[in-house]
Known about the structure:
- With about 190 residues, this protein is α+β, with helices and mostly antiparallel strands.
- The relative contact order is 0.14.
- The protein has three helices and five strands.
- The longest helix has 17 residues, at about 85-100.
- The chain has helices at about 5-10, 85-100, 115-130, and strands at about 30-45, 50-60, 65-70, 135-145, 155-160.
- A five-stranded antiparallel beta sheet has the order 3-2-1-4-5.
Amino acid sequence: MSLLDAMNELKQKGFNPxxxxxxxxxxxxxxxxxxxxxxxxxxxxKGDRDFLMLTFSVVQGEYEGRQESIFPSLAQTKANGDxxxxxxxxxSISEIQIIGETLDNPVPDKCFAFENETEAYEAIAKAxxxxxxxxxxxxxxxxxxxxxxxxxxxxxxxEKQEQPKVADAKxxxxxxxxxxxxxxxxxxx
Length: 189
């Protein structure tokens, strides 16, 4: 990408230096309903904690191309070592299973039948791989976070969407009867 390409991208995104606000392509997508594609489910680690990351991309509208990542946690302990409330884990399990159902790719209960979250994350990421590329409607709604107001909660609802039709590519020469048998003597080398 050249400097001119970067400048053109800024202009397309509505950047105005007179407003005094720096352009941030990673700024969260505003609350609304979006048509998104499910891009990936990955099991990652940072430090001594691992996590599941579900990635979606907006496929039409003003925010087309922007990504939204969701990090449902199955951690059984908090960062400070206290036990994680069952309600928090249950909410994450329900969110994962709702996403699977919305994508017509159910996440089976056996993906959660492990003693630790690491194995569960691996099983869930594998179970969701066939759904990559499917589209769905995602509604994003933020709510205040009393403990950390600078990090509001992002809440999601998911809705099934009719999948785009894939072109049926057929061999245009199949069945024409115009076939030629070629042997080694017909080749110039």
